[in-house]
Amino acid sequence: MKTVLSIAVVGLGYWGPNLARVFSQLPGCRLAGLCDKDPERLNQMRRLYPDVTRFSDLSSMLRKTNPDAVVIAAPARQHFPLAKEALLAGKHVFIEKPMATSTGECRDLIQMASARNLTLMVGHIFLYSAAIRLIQVMIAAGQLGEIRYINSQRLNLGLFRNDINVVWDLAPHDISIVLSLLGRPPVSVNCQGNASVTRGVEDVANLSMNFGANRFVTIQTSWLEPKKIRRMTIVGTDRMIVYDDIEPHEKIRIFDMRVEPPPHYDNFGDFQYCYHYGDCHIPHIEQEEPLRGMCRHFLDCINHGTAPLTGGEMGLDVVRILEACSMSLHANGGAVLVPSQPAEPVPPLGLLQPIPASCAC
To answer: Does the N-terminal peptide bond of residue 98 adopt cis geometry, omega within 30 degrees of 0?
Structure first.
């Protein structure tokens, strides 16, 4: 494998410039080309990267720069054709979430990458967050007890999209986190939403997932919220965690709280719940920009021929759930079974160990 990998970025709208920034800073790689159909975006990138060649179409960029890998941050409906073209050209591919707009497209990309021994990775960025990795380790070690339910809120004002709805835009983050924490796919989903601004494109939606074994997950998404909220509550039989990604330092709060029903009772008067109120702790977490860790992981997978933490199978699992959400939306929120074709459970990235609580709330 080459000592320095050449990276081409396709899609320079909202997120592509961030990917270009990080890859341009990482050792062991260089920006080979930047691609977007919008001339104004290309002009903006020219000022930032004057030595990087710019293109208005992927075919020209592949032909003239011959990169080792292509990073795709275009609108979701373009993910499949762009990734297909790059894979067929023999390039490693990184795709932003969602991986594609159907499970069939995801399977095709997985097959193409496997047949050519190419790295295929999906940008489920929160699985590269130190906070999420710590929660993974705590759950795996049994420190929360049995997980009872997870509630997540991903709310903000915009960015409005017309190619996908708010579920396909925002929920992939929370779905990928939940899959990594619970290690299994849901049995069924219910999803209700409303299109308040653009007809036919839901901008507010509530998703619930039944995981069996008395585990339940709710996800609230919105483009119509005045305040940006990124909060997840994880409730176990022994402890509870509130993860707030908006907090710059105190992202995780661990609550030693639980409720226990009486073991037995003879009449209604004997039936008393037991509430345990313990301490709240904020663990210290060594922070690294998750985007940087994710991009470095992509390079490592190419160089060492290892499978990505968020590879094609993970992307497929998320899209499978999103498809079930779309079916439920069209059925006015009715329950839709999720096809049982799960990938292997996602392990925590690296060797992060539980960090002792360092200060009280």
So the answer is: yes
Q: Residue 106 burial (CB < 10 Å; 0-12/13-18/19+)?
A: buried
Which of the four CATH numbers 3.30.360.10, 3.60.10.10, 3.40.190.10, 3.40.50.720 does domain 5-118 have?
A: 3.40.50.720
Q: What is the pLDDT of residue 340?
A: 74
Angle at which helix 312-330 crosses helix 103-115, to 10 degrees, equals: 170
144 pLDDT band, cuts 50/70/90, is very high
Q: Is 359's pLDDT higher than 60? A: no
Indicate the burial class of 352 (C-beta count within 10 angstroms; 0-12, 13-18, 19 or more).
middle
pLDDT band at residue 345 using 50, 70 and 90 as cut-offs: very low
Mean pLDDT across the stretch 151-179?
96
d(CA 96, CA 167): 15
Integer CA distances (angstroms), 350 to 304, 353, 354, in order = 15, 9, 12
Cα–Cα distance for residue pair 250/17, rounded to 1 Å:
28
Calculate the alpha carbon distances from 231 to 166, 221, 292, 347 in Å: 17, 11, 22, 22
Distant-in-sequence, close-in-space partners of 294: CB < 8 Å, separation ≥ 6: 123, 125, 128, 310
User: Please, where are the H alpha helices in the chain?
Assistant: 16-25, 39-48, 58-65, 79-88, 103-115, 130-140, 166-182, 290-304, 312-330
135's tokens: 């929660």
Q: Where in the chain is the domain with CATH 3.40.50.720?
A: 5-118
The pTM of this model reads 0.90
- Weakest mean pLDDT among 129-138, 200-209, 271-280, 296-305: 271-280
